[in-house]
Amino acid sequence: MAFVRGAWRILVGIKDVLVLLFLLLFFGALYTMLSYSPKPEASVSRGALLLQLEGVVVEQPQSVNPLSALPGSAPQMKEYRLRDIVTALDAAKSDDNVKAVVLNLDRFMGGGQVAMSRIGEALDGVRAAKKPVLVYATSYTSDSYQLAAHASEVWLNSFGQVFIAGPGGSQPYYKGLIDKLGVTTHVYRVGTYKSYVEPFIRTDQSPEARQANQSLADALWQTWQDDVRKARPKAQIAAYVADPLGAVKGAGGDLQQAALRANLVDKLGGEEAFGARVAEVAGAASDNKPGGFAAIDFARYVKAKRPANNGQIGVLTVAGDIVDGEAGPGTAAGDTISDLLYKALAEKSLKALVVRVDSPGGSVLAGEKIRQAILAAKQRGMPVVVSMGDVAASGGYWISTPADRIFAEPATITGSIGVFGILPSLEGTLAKIGVTTDGIRTTPLSGEPNVLGGISPQFDAIGQASVESVYNRFVGLVAKARHKTPAQVDGIAQGRVWDGGTARQIGLVDRFGGLEDAIAEAARLAKIDADDAKPYYIEKAPDTFEQILDDWLNSDTQEAALPTDWLARQAWMQRQWALQAVADARGLITGGSVRAACLECRGYGAPRLASAGEEKGFWTMLAGKLW
Question: Model-level pTM?
Answer without folding.
Answer: 0.86
